[in-house]
Specification:
The protein has 4 helices and 7 strands, in the order E-H-H-E-E-E-H-E-H-E-E. By secondary structure, the protein is α+β, with helices and mostly antiparallel strands. The structure holds coenzyme A (COA). The site of coenzyme A has 21 residues, from strand 4, helix 3, strand 5 and helix 4. The site of coenzyme A (COA) has 21 residues, from strand 4, helix 3, strand 5 and helix 4. One of its GO terms (cellular component) is NatA complex. Keywords: Acyltransferase, Cytoplasm, Transferase. Its EC number is 2.3.1.258. It is found in: Cytoplasm.
Length: about 180
């Protein structure tokens, strides 16, 4: 038997309905027209995952520049239930990690997960994500309504320069 072909492809106006259908099946919350309009302009930050040419997963991210940092926010990353534990989620996270590495200017990657979504929490921990915060009543229409914020630090926050212009010694990362 030949091995299954797992690959990522672009989101285009021709397949955006497949992305909508997939997100409706995989996630308990729904996403509005603005979400899909932005996704169409997201380039490498939005991808469909194919298993032998069938759409079975998708990842959608955006860049967040609030709180004085530049972070990649994973809005959705999911795979149809029968196709889980086959490495499709891993392929999508690795795509995101590669994007962030090539960009070279992100402080962190983060996302929200429902507090009872232990599978997703275990999955993200494998890639170095940690729970950094729990937000009560984050979701409006689903139970449990609380969400963990999972975050992977890419670059430690820089300390502000000292008044005489020198950078505190202990916080440098070993590079010139
Ligand atoms: C989380 C999710 C994306 C993982 O996708 P996947 O294709 O099954 O992941 P992979 O096959 O690449 O799993 C890689 C590893 O992560 C861990 N993992 C994945 N799912 C897990 C689960 N349900 N329980 C425990 N560990 C899990 C395992 O270590 C796994 O390796 P293994 O299969 O060799 O044991 C998928 O379960 C999903 O779509 N969930 C619904 C959507 C969602 O909750 N997304 C997260 C919020 S954006």
């Amino acid at each position: 038997m030949t091995r299954a072909k797992i690959e990522l492809g672009d989101v285009t106006p021709h397949n955006i309905k497949q992305l909508k259908k997939l997100n409706t099946v995989v996630f308990p919350v729904s996403y509005n027209d603005k979400f899909y309009k932005d996704v169409l302009e997201a380039g490498e930050l939005a991808k469909l995952a194919y298993y032998n040419d069938i759409v079975v997963g998708a990842v959608c991210c955006r860049i967040d520049t609030s709180d004085n940092s530049r972070r990649l926010y994973i809005m959705t990353l999911g795979c149809l239930y029968p196709y889980r534990r086959l490495g499709i989620g891993t392929l999508m996270v690795e795509h995101v990690l590669k994007y962030v590495e090539q960009d070279g200017n992100f402080d962190s990657i983060f996302l929200h997960v429902q507090v009872n979504n232990e599978g997703a929490i275990d999955f993200y921990k494998k890639f170095g994500f940690e729970i950094v915060e729990t937000k009560e009543h984050y979701y409006k229409r689903i139970e449990p309504a609380d969400a963990h914020v999972l975050q992977k630090t890419i670059r430690q926050p820089q300390s502000p320069p000292m008044l005489n212009g020198t950078v505190p010694h202990a916080k440098t990362n070993g590079h010139d």
